[in-house]
Specification:
9 strands; 542 residues; 25 helices; five-stranded parallel β-sheet; four-stranded parallel β-sheet; alpha/beta
């Protein structure tokens, strides 16, 4: 993100007019500082600008170059001080004003950055960098539509403003407007072919639209320009896996461990790197969501079948469900550091470490143990003459993972009105509030406040699922739970679904009882549920 419009090396009038020093040495220092700034020698620019400021303490240009150099060196506090000093020296310098806003954005003081940007724009309404910094602040403050408007204002003044093109596109993609985003990113990469963020975001936007080959090319270009781009590395992995390129995809899937959100677990014993395991005691630990643990737990049994003594540490809600995983001892994640083992491994690395190919990857899901105690309680609630369908519509809303995958509860109205069909809510926490919105419009049975309320959450969900005729869900952990229980499950997917549902098929090699319903067009849930209505009316499961 550019902190401000770049200070111009020849803009030394205010310092020269001050009469505080011989103009020739000052002029040379200012030219040197500006040239070094433009060439990317930020440390050299800082040193030269400091010399200029020592010769002419009232030089606005010296302060602006100092601010720009400090910002580029990752010191926004110092940048803010220098830009603020420049504003104090000349309150009519728009670059200095804008530098203050940029430094405040870098300091994550977004409310102050917004106020500073609006002061700048009140004086210079057509100044593109100020519109840009206003957009950055608005986006961070949770006002994406206003941020998009600010970025568009910046682009109206400067159509080739690459950072504004990129940032605006990111917000459009998050709003499921990936087609618009790609148009802006196409302009960005045409304007700046070596600007890595635009290639990276273009790859993700193309993937959102299911244009996988183009998306893969953009990700690979982004990685060529920035070999440390973990987001592009992981997007590339997902695209390869979705295309069935299992070996290469699993190797690339390790990029997830370079993401900022990754939490590396430390143990007193080494990480297993693959190879011979006969007799070795290996701790495998769940690393991401509940659905990921359900999906990948089957590979812990494969590891055990190769002769390892496997302990699988999982999230507490899944501990009892996975208790009878073949060949595997299951504990809670909170117990993972309390025992000695020969080695450890993150769960989702097992397929790579085991050297699996496509034939091995698509093994049967893990058998779950729900016991017998909960089943009679839930089965007693189901009228035998009705067709009972469990429904879940909202995944975890935090982060980009939920972008476009959840559908509104109201989309299920068609299914509820089919003769003999009764819907049961399997939704907990986020999304459950939508039950109030459909009250009086159509019926979805709420299992009640005790549903999954105890320490073994998911046991009730599993028991109710085992009693139902069908589960209909978005791409969330409940899809994996139903598939692992061998229950008929229909999964509603967006155009560019998550990699594990592959492409261009309506079944899943991971879950034989699953049927996949894919959007025909991005965001078009009504058309998908019209197809599902027909299939449910005819009771066509597969």
């Amino acid at each position: 993100m550019p902190p401000s419009a770049a200070p111009q090396a020849g803009d030394s009038g205010s310092a020269l007019r001050s009469g505080s020093c011989d103009p020739m040495p000052l002029e040379r220092w200012l030219h040197l500082a500006g040239a070094r700034l433009q060439s990317g020698d930020f440390r050299g620019s800082l040193e030269a600008a400091a010399e200029a400021a020592s010769l002419a303490p009232h030089s606005v240009l010296a302060r602006k170059i100092l601010g720009a150099a400090c910002a580029s060196l990752g010191d926004p506090s110092a940048a803010l001080n220098h830009y603020a000093a420049a504003v104090a020296l000349d309150g009519r310098d728009k670059e200095a004003h804008n530098g203050v806003a940029a430094a405040l954005n870098d300091l994550r003081e977004f409310a102050r950055a917004l106020a500073a940007s609006e002061i700048t724009l009140s004086l210079w309404p057509d100044f593109a960098p100020a519109h840009y910094n206003r957009g950055v602040a608005l986006a961070a403050l949770g006002r994406p539509e206003d941020a998009i408007a600010s970025y568009r204002q910046a682009l109206a003044q400067n159509p080739g403003f690459v950072e504004a093109l990129n940032n605006c596109a990111v917000l459009l993609a998050r709003a499921q407007r990936s087609g618009e985003a790609i148009k802006l990113l196409d302009r960005a990469v045409e304007r700046a072919p070596d600007y890595a963020p635009a290639h990276a975001n273009r790859g993700r936007a193309l993937a959102d639209l299911g244009r996988d080959a183009e998306a893969l090319a953009s990700c690979e270009r982004a990685l060529a320009l920035n070999p440390n781009d973990a987001e592009s590395g992981l997007t590339r992995a997902h695209l390869l896996l979705a295309a069935g390129e299992v070996r290469e995809g699993l190797a690339a899937f390790e990029w997830r461990r370079r993401l900022p959100a990754w939490t590396e677990r430390r143990f007193a014993f080494p990480e297993w790197r693959g190879g011979q395991v006969s007799g070795a005691k290996i701790l495998v630990w769940a690393e991401q969501g509940l659905g990921d643990t359900l999906h990948f737990s089957r590979y812990a049994s494969l590891l055990a079948a190769r002769g390892a003594a496997v302990t699988l540490a999982v999230q507490n809600p899944l501990r009892w469900l996975l208790a009878k995983l073949p060949g595997v001892r299951v504990i809670g994640l909170d117990q993972a550091s309390q025992e000695a083992h020969d080695a450890h491994a993150p769960l989702m690395s097992l397929p790579r470490l085991l050297g699996l190919d496509a034939a091995d990857l698509f093994v049967e899901p893990a058998r779950l143990d729900i016991g017998v105690a909960p089943l009679p309680r839930w089965r007693a609630k189901l009228r035998p003459e009705l067709f009972h369908v469990g429904v879940a519509w909202q995944g975890n809303p935090s982060g980009d993972v939920d972008r476009g995958r959840s559908f509104p509860l109201a989309a299920l109205a068609r299914l509820s009105r089919l003769p003999g069909v009764k819907l049961w809510s399997l939704q907990k926490n986020a999304g459950a509030e939508q039950m109030r919105d459909i009250a009086g419009l159509f019926a979805v049975e709420d299992p009640g406040p005790v549903f999954d309320a105890g320490p073994d959450a998911f046991i009730d969900t599993a028991a109710l699922m085992a009693s139902l005729d069908l589960v209909v869900t978005c791409d969330t952990a409940l899809a994996h739970l139903a598939g692992s229980l061998r229950r008929p499950v229909w999964i509603a997917l967006q155009v560019a679904s998550e990699w594990r549902w592959l492409r261009d098929r309506d079944d899943s090699p991971f879950y034989p009882t699953a049927r996949l319903f894919r959007q025909s067009r991005p965001g078009d849930w009504p058309e998908l549920f019209r197809r599902m209505e027909v299939a449910l009316g005819e009771r066509r499961f597969i």
